[in-house]
Design a protein that fits this description.
The protein is an all-alpha fold. It has 5 helices and no strands. The N and C termini lie far apart (71 Å). 22% of the residues are buried.
């Protein structure tokens, strides 16, 4: 009984997961662009800002990139699992048995994994880049102060 209810949820398919990942990708790209502009602003106005203010301004929204980078592969994997469940459900409910009955669903499922990685990799790369830039900028401020 519970399995049937969960199966009805699972056969919704991969599309909602792909929409979530697409939304995450757009937000991640927006954060990367916004952070790049903020870093440029801070670099040009560094004399007018205190060190704590610089840290607060530069670290803003980096947690979002870290969260997306860490969780997007799991969301993609969840989409893959839903796609495989859907493919096998389709196979069990049709008279046709064979490779062709499952391949469409499996390939759709694997797209979810790829989409998850497509979101995660740039997010993690940008996060690491910005964290390193923050460290270097703060070290430079500290060195200039002495």
């Amino acid at each position: 009984m519970l399995t049937e209810k969960l199966l009805h949820v699972a056969i919704i398919g991969v599309d909602p997961i792909l929409w979530i990942l697409l939304s995450m990708s757009v937000v991640s790209f927006g954060v990367i662009v916004e952070r790049t502009l903020v870093f440029s602003y801070v670099k040009n106005n560094i004399q007018n800002l205190s060190e704590p203010k610089i840290r607060v301004v530069l670290e803003k929204r980096l947690g979002l990139l870290a969260t997306f980078g860490n969780n997007a592969p799991f969301i993609g994997l969840f989409g893959t699992v839903l796609g495989v469940i859907n493919a096998f459900h389709t196979l069990s409910s049709e008279n046709e048995f064979g490779v062709n009955a499952v391949m469409g669903g499996i390939s759709e499922a694997l797209v979810a994994t790829a989409a998850g990685l497509f979101v995660a990799i740039p997010s993690v790369m940008a996060y690491n880049y910005f964290v390193r830039k923050i460290r270097m900028m703060l070290l430079q401020i500290e060195a200039d102060a002495t």
